Amino acid sequence: MLMFSIAVLRGGPVQGAYRLRQLHFHWGSSDDHGSEHIIDGVKHAAELHMVHWNPKHGNFAGALKQRDGVAVVGIFLQIGNTPKPEMKRILEEIDKIKTKGKEAPFHHFDPSILFPKSRDYWTYEGSFTTPPCEECITWILLREPVVVSPDQMAKLRSLSMNAENEPFCPLVDNWRPPQPLKGRVVRASFK
Ligand SMILES: [Zn+2]
């Protein structure tokens, strides 16, 4: 069973306790695409990634070079009219980081509040989806999506790639298409 306490991931396919390093989203320009993983042909509007690293490798850079270095929990976001209330906290911060280079610190934030009810997941060994795509990741994809409202999704799409004083250039479609499976085995925690 997968367990989450404040910023620590343990159980499921990983050995020991992995620490949360950062979380980020991938999303599309419209509701019918945006997730990086496609399950039985279904694309979701967005996908949340929580990046954890294995402290036995000393630091994050060191963990990137190890096969058991990093575990990423992926959560699908689905558009609906009864959004998960806990998502509000994150999406409210978006107004503060509208343009390139801005940061929003999160103090005493417990990311496990963003998790869906079900802890069913798929898992496989793989790489980062951004270059240099190190092969160091245990992917853990939660089966149950969480619901965000159309307004919240619009907020994500209102982010821009430009700096504050530059012309607006929307940040959308920051997802990478799925890669060939190349003999990788995907396991499910459920039947
Ligand atoms: Zn990602």
From TrEMBL:
Location relative to the cell: Cytoplasm
Reaction(s) the record says it catalyses: hydrogencarbonate + H(+) = CO2 + H2O
Keywords associated with the record: Acetylation, Cytoplasm, Glutathionylation, Lyase, Metal-binding, Phosphoprotein, Zinc
Keyword Lyase: yes
A Pfam family that the UniProt record links to this protein: Carb_anhydrase
Function: Reversible hydration of carbon dioxide.
Protein name, as recorded: Carbonic anhydrase
Lineage: Eukaryota, Metazoa, Chordata, Craniata, Vertebrata
Record gene name: LOC109316488
